[in-house]
Specification:
627 residues, alpha/beta, 37 strands, MoaB/Mog_dom (chains A, B), Molybdopterin biosynthesis moea protein, domain 2, molybdenum cofactor biosynthesis (chains A, B), homodimer, Molybdopterin biosynthesis protein (chains A, B)
Chain lengths: 627, 627
């Protein structure tokens, strides 16, 4: 690999911010109809071009009078005035109020000539001789004079004003139906890499294809930051095609982002195109993740190259690019851009460069706890497990437990989950979670679940298998599930029990060691080993695939269906759902355990209530499940 | 007027909320393309239908090996393996890794058959005999196995999830390109009242027409709350037309809002249509403002009638309707829906019904101050002077200064202004304000400005005229402006000075008593009275129009141009801008005075800096202005 691609001379994050600031993304201003102006930003000051109201108007329903005619009138001694006519709202007055007369008037109607005050209807009576006025009024009473609300020539709204419903209202009052607003920066997204396929297209896993995550993610981020995203057709690693696409994007957009591939060859192609058709201002930033970030110009446009891993791409976008788009659009930093919290755990870090640590949030009585999420695996699940990133200085060695940190949220719409659960994956649990508002559940397995609950980060852990290792916690409830061996429909190999795995030449697929189901399997293996008077290890060594572990509760069954295995560890419910055969080995309990400090948290209460009320519903159709 | 329209039997706000909850606004769910799914809400749970990744993939660039071949290798004693080929990302492997061999592999590429680990390139060297492996690896090292990120069959996202960029990312990874989301409730807006004209259309002020403020304001509020707003053509007060429009809206929408007119006849027409074509659940709510609110059904749709005054309409919408729309759309309450603060002043209230008090926000070192804004005048400027409403219980007699209150913001996008200024209106000041981010300036006149600054609510007051009444404050700077009498171009009446107003039959237009310009005029009148040895009151009585006051600094000149007056109080700059004649009477100073406790507030600093740096720019082209 070339020296360049190894990014030996890394720039500081501050230098990267400067480089992006130095690029001008600001589009031309534009004029939009008033009903499209919401959440846009005024490009220039709006002065009132007319008085509001445009005429002296009655503020109440009542009678327009000459104030001096009412002097001395009160409840006991009303003045009676001649009723000479009526003025309706939206109509030109056809009467003149002279001495001793009055005109009925509606709220908002034009004051008739001669009248200088309005008496509200509640202070009047119709009498034979006319209208009895039971109060005295001063000139101007209950009248809004022309321009009293907004005077023509006055400053109504300043440049840079974000238009919310109330500003739309003021513009309406001024009769403004076309609004000069800041343009939305157009952001072209070019995704690269031979291995990427757009969602909705056919995926060839055997050829190493994966769905393109970054294009739509970043496009959504662009729109959220106030830009207009343009997705270009996916490009492979071919230089000419990439050049054509990047140049086309540069012609059409204020900013071009390349994103997608983690492969060195795709990065290399882009690198060469930018060097040839534009200028690289910096290549490589001293941050983790995001080292391979590129900043430059491409023809007349700005260019930023994002890293390939989804969390890294979103992190770099959130940290460096979104603020530039927002600023070019004239939008303020949202109030919900960040959240303050305290570290839930101690987090070591000593790589000598800035770290953008993906972090999740947990709400507690003592405020928001922040825990690190991604370990740089490139997992897309980290995307939804993290709520944002904590920027850790290059010279920080560790973040102490309880230390105050600021989380830059991935979106102003992101909120801490109402419940953080960890542990076993289970179909009944999934249904119960569906009844909660905004829960987060990480299926890390029962063993990890217990460990994390003990460490105090999650609100609840859901565990299955033997209960003798359960931690000190508050049991919220649970259910049982029948487990065993999933085999092809009709059980063609005639599998009868665990012994067949040991004694026969069957390809097995196991669950991960952290799984409660795996612990149940191991317990049964112990029993078999005892019965045979051998060590469990001997049995395990005889099972082809005992160490071949997969993640989800359905995964072994799917391997069996796909023909990659003869037998998988799983649930009767899964076998039934996927039309497989099933050899029962036992029934295990699933326990929902709550952090003792969080039992009053609304999300935990909601889960307890779902367990109390909806467990039977959640078990419907799940064969082998029981409450 | 009928008893009904006086709403004698008012329902409680809680009853109003219940009534609205009882109406079902929830639309059908719909399916949208992934790139339109941002900020939508998942209608159902999304389970993974495939493993992510779909194959065992290399996590780094390096060499795919059989882990057992590397046992014992280290920097000092590498193992050398045969290099049998290369696997690129996005390509099917065409090699098999057998004992003693390795294959070069890119990040993200498919693990070739036989290999069970990857050695990162940094731990290898090309040597003559092949590839020197300088570390030992275990099976699974640097490999992400199929389904390790997301396992097929697992719960990916729950129903009710708000889709932000990260969720879009996870859906992309799962290949989901069409997303089942909650429908947006369709909200029809029918505006009523003969006096209303849509922005952009011609306005006939003489016939009492005003622009329709509520339709676009409420439409923007509907969209912000997650609904789809449909504006129906404006209707007058005619029963048949109104009935036709309301029924059409009910046929097409989940919710119909009527809004606009303050006139009793328009309200009456609507009332009768709803009673005939639907059902009124409640008419009149014991809140201020909003008493005339209606809630009911119209055919199969929900119906709410909003009050006519813009602030009242937005207040009732914000308090009762927006939450219902949001809930029907499945959207959570935004984190920025409310702000906590302390009352800046004591506010009395004792009307025995709930008050929704429009309130403005000021940021201080000690937190957010909240002050009441609208006094029920129906002014549209109150819309932008208020940031939200404080709900005050019916049995609360007053809010104490310093009392904690919650402000329900008019929009989640509303933020407290960076600067709250009050006082004189002035064209140079308008330009300086244009240089600040998000200032709020209320042109209440110099006298009111001084009073409010003394009461401690605003950050700065801008005052003109005599300085002997100025309050104790920190002077940030100022300028001078020439003032006098604005007359028609060419000065056809040959006006020469103040004495002409007293001695001749000229129609004069004055500024309001709170204006600094008016104080300057009064000082000159005192001087003239002294010179003549008479009382100022005698001079004033001789001026036709001394008490005819208008609001803006350009307003008198505009009256002169319109022919409604011969002479107006004003500035030389205004006379020049509007091509009028001008008779100078003096030069007055304009002073920018800061609240002594707020001089370090960023908005105040920004104003001081604008005064220091940009004052000369602000005065360019303003004749008679000097720094």
């Amino acid at each position: 690999m070339s020296d360049r691609r190894q990014f030996r001379d890394l720039d500081s994050p501050e230098r990267a911010r400067e480089a992006i600031r130095s690029l001008d993304l600001t589009p031309e201003t534009e004029t939009v109809p008033l009903d499209d102006a919401r959440h846009r930003v005024l490009a220039e000051r709006i002065d009132a071009r007319l008085d509001v109201p445009g005429f002296d108007r009655a503020s109440v329903d009542g009678y327009a009078v000459r104030a001096r005619d009412t002097f001395g009138a009160d409840e006991a001694d009303p003045v009676v005035l001649d009723h000479i006519g009526t003025v309706h709202a939206g109509a030109e007055p056809d009467v003149e109020v002279r001495e001793g007369t009055c005109a009925e008037i509606s709220t908002g109607a034009v004051m008739p000539p001669g009248a200088d005050a309005v008496v509200m209807v509640e202070r009047t009576d119709e009498v034979d001789a006319g209208i009895a006025i039971r109060t005295s009024v001063a000139p101007g009473d209950r009248v809004m004079v022309a321009g009293a609300d907004v005077a023509a020539g006055s400053r109504a709204l300043g440049p840079g004003t974000l238009l919310t419903p109330r500003e739309i209202g003021l513009l309406s009052a001024l009769g403004v139906d076309e609004v000069p607003v800041r343009g939305k920066p157009t952001v072209g997204i070019v995704s690269t890499g031979d291995e990427l396929v757009r969602p909705g297209e056919d995926l060839h896993s055997e050829a190493g294809q994966i769905y393109d995550v970054n294009s739509y993610t970043i496009a959504a981020g662009v729109e959220e930051a106030g830009g207009e995203a343009v997705l270009y057709p996916h490009a492979g690693d071919d230089y000419d095609e990439m050049e054509r696409l990047l140049v086309e994007a540069a012609d059409e957009c204020d900013l071009v982002l390349s994103s997608g591939s983690t492969s060195a060859s795709a990065v290399d192609v882009i690198y060469r195109v930018i060097e040839s058709e534009g200028e690289l201002l910096l290549h490589g930033v001293s941050v983790k993740p995001g080292k391979p970030m590129l900043v430059g110009r491409l023809e007349e446009s700005a260019y930023v190259g994002l890293p390939g891993y989804p969390v890294s791409a979103l992190t770099i976008f959130r940290t460096f690019v979104a603020p530039a788009i927002r600023s070019a659009a004239g939008l303020p930093v949202p109030r919900t851009a960040t959240v303050e919290g305290r570290m839930a755990v101690r987090e070591r870090y000593a790589e000598g460069r800035t770290r953008l640590m993906p972090a999740g949030l947990v709400e507690t009585d003592e405020g928001t706890l922040v825990y690190p999420v991604d370990k740089g695996s490139g997992a897309t699940t980290s995307l939804v497990e993290a709520d944002g990133v904590v920027e850790v200085d290059a010279d920080t060695d560790y973040l102490a437990e309880g230390e105050r940190v600021t989380v830059q949220l991935f979106s102003p719409d992101v909120r801490a989950p109402t419940l953080l659960g960890v542990g076993e994956d289970d179909p009944a649990l999934s249904r119960l979670l569906d009844r909660l508002e905004r829960p987060r559940y990480l299926d890390v397995g029962s063993r990890q679940g217990r460990r994390r609950l003990r460490d105090g980060v999650p609100d609840v852990a859901v565990v299955s298998g033997p209960s003798d290792r359960d931690v000190d916690a508050v049991a919220l409830g649970g259910w049982t599930r029948e487990w065993g061996l999933v085999v092809p429909a009709g059980n063609p190999d005639g599998v009868d029990g665990l012994a067949d795995l040991v004694d026969r030449d069957l390809r097995f697929v196991d669950r991960a060691a952290d799984s409660g189901l795996r612990a149940s399997l191991d317990t049964e293996l112990d029993r078999l080993a005892d019965a045979r008077g051998v060590d469990r290890r001997d049995l395990i060594d005889a099972i082809d695939g005992y160490d071949l572990t997969v993640k989800g509760f359905e995964s072994p069954a799917r391997k069996v269906i796909g023909g990659a295995a003869d037998v998988g560890l799983g649930l009767r419910a899964t076998a039934d759902t996927l039309d497989c055969g099933f050899v029962p080995l036992g029934t295990e309990s699933v326990r929902v355990l709550a952090n003792p400090d969080r039992t009053n948290k609304p999300g935990v209460e909601a889960l307890r209530s779902a367990l109390d009320t909806h467990l039977d519903d959640a078990l419907v159709g799940l064969s082998g499940f029981d409450s």
